[in-house]
Amino acid sequence: MVKVVTDSCSDITPQLAQELGITVVPLYVQFGNEIYRDNVDLSTEEFYHKLEISKIHPTTSTATPAEFANLFNELAEETKEILVITLSEKFSATYAAALQSKTMVKKDCHIEVIDSRAGAGAQMLLVILAAQMARAGASLDKIVDRVKMAIPRVQIRMTFDTLEYLRRGGRIGKAQAFLGSLLKVNPVLGIKGGATFPIARARNRTEAMDFLVNFVKEFSQVEAVAIEDATTPDDLQTLARRLKDVVPPERIYLSKVSPVVGTHVGPHVLAVAVLEAE
Asked: Is the dihedral angle over the CA atoms 45, 168, 185, 158 positive or is it negative?
C-alpha cells in the first residue's frame, strides 16, 4: 500500500493521521534559543499561550533532507511506494528538502513529492484525498494524478483580526494592500498559486464569518471541507453548525491551526477550505 506523508502545516489531527495511516513530519518553531517540533514538543494550546505572552516573536524552519530520508528509509521497510504532499514551496523550503532527500534514500522505493501550492486546510484536503485512495488500494501513479488534478479545485479563505503576524513573517504577499488602514476591519485572504492574496475587508467578526459561509455556498458540488481555528473554538463550532445544512457533516473536517502556521497567521485566525467535486 502507498504510504502518504505530509508536513505538520497540513494541520492533520493526530486522530485523523492514525485513522488514515498518514505520517506527519513536524516542522519547527523557535522562540529565541528554544526550539520545538510542531505539535510534538509544543501543543497548539501551549504555543498560542506562549505567542501571546512572549516578548520574542517566534520563527519557523523546515525539516532537513536527512530527516526526510531517515523517515523514507523506515517506511521503505513496509512499502515500495511513498507519496509526499508538502506546504507550498512559496511559503517554505519543505518541498525542496523532501525532493533533495530522495537521493539520500538507500532503500529501493518509488517516492513522489507534490507541492500542494497551499497550506493548512487546503493542504489537508489533498492529503486526506490521497490517504483515502491509498487505503482503497490505488497505485501511486493514480493517486499522484488525482491529487495534481485536485490542486486547482481546492480553495481556502482565512479571516484575521490583524495581519501583523503575516507581515512579521514575510508571508503577507499581495495582502500588503490591506495594511495601514485606519479602520478596524477583519481582512479575508485566500491562497492562490501558492501565495496569499486579499479578498475582502469585513467590518467585524460576524460579517467575516458570514463571508466564509457564503464562500462555501458558492460551490455547486463540494467533495470535502476543512474548518480551522486557532484560539476561538466557539467560532469553529458556530461555523460548523452553519455549514451542516450546506455540506454533509461527514465531509467536514475540524482542526486547529498548528504552531508553525500559527506563527504567521496569529491567534485569531478562522479558516475554511473547500475541495470542489469533479
From this structure: negative
Q: What residue has cell string 481556502?
A: 156
| Spatial contact of 62 and 93, defined as CB atoms under 8 Å apart | yes
Dist. CA 35–CA 47, nearest whole Å: 12
Of the candidates 29, 12, 13, which has an alpha carbon nearest to the alpha carbon of residue 262? Answer: 29
pTM of the model: 0.92
- Domain hosting 130: range is 3-151
> 227: which 3 cell numbers?
474548518
CATH of the domain at 26: 3.40.50.10170
The residue type found at 73 is N
* Domain's final residue, options 127, 151, 175: 151
The rounded distance, in Å, linking the Cα atoms of 207 and 186 is 8
- How confident is the model over 175-199, as pLDDT tens digits? 454 544 545 678 888 887 777 778 8
Query: Among all chains, which residue has been given the C-alpha cell 506562549?
Result: 50
